[in-house]
Design a protein that fits this description.
6 helices, mainly alpha, globular, 98 residues
Length: 98
């Protein structure tokens, strides 16, 4: 059974895209992808849930979106949680999130 955190990093990305779109009506997914240093098609697949981002890409994105280390670490933990397959490692990530 999927955990509620499995798509949480996507919600953060969607929220940031929405925030930027509201601030600038011409801002698009393509512009967001450019600003995050990710290919537009890849970003689209990530936001739709058909693909995950790597931790390397997540680090790049976190540097561009978040201003505090705590926010960056939280985002990276959410991505790591989604990528981790083993239950015991998921538990370790959950502990770091707390």
């Amino acid at each position: 059974m999927p955990h509620m955190l499995d798509n949480e990093y996507r919600k953060i990305l969607k929220g940031e895209l929405l925030r930027r779109s509201r601030a600038n009506q011409t801002y698009s997914l393509r512009a967001f992808a450019r600003d995050m240093s990710i290919e537009p098609g890849q970003l689209s697949r990530v936001l739709s849930g058909s693909k995950n981002i790597s931790l390397t890409t997540a680090r790049t994105i976190a540097e561009k979106i978040f201003s505090t280390e705590r926010e960056k670490t939280y985002f990276l933990c959410l991505v790591e949680y989604t990528l981790t397959k083993k239950q015991d490692q998921k538990q370790l990530v959950l502990r770091r999130l707390e």
